[in-house]
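Researcher: Structure prediction, please.
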Amino acid sequence: DAQSERQTSIYSPPFYSSPTGYKMRARLYLNGDGNARHTHMSLFLVLMRSSNDPILKFPFNHKVIFCLYDQTSAQRHIIDSFRPDIRSSSFQRPRSDMNIASGIPKFFPLTMIQ
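Model: Predicted structure follows.
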């Protein structure tokens, strides 16, 4: 489905950064997004509205680290991170269910898939 582009992205289930923390989910483009299309998997963070928001600090300004662990003996782990652009609407307090995704367009080269 990813290569045929019938389904361009998939979302993780929502999760919290801590019991009273930020609600978020990951968004993965298996065949890349934007300038990474057809060359990389793109991985993004999506902030979500929650009942915790009134006690949290916005804009969200915490370093985000994505890790993809290679479970083969080669152990070619992919670890990348980014700091949020606090001017971006992606990291402001959510006004709808989800903010716009933001993250790492060139997270994982498709050439590494065997």
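Model: Residues 10-112 form a domain with the Apoptosis, Tumor Necrosis Factor Receptor Associated Protein 2; Chain A fold (CATH 2.60.210.10).
Researcher: Thanks, that helps.
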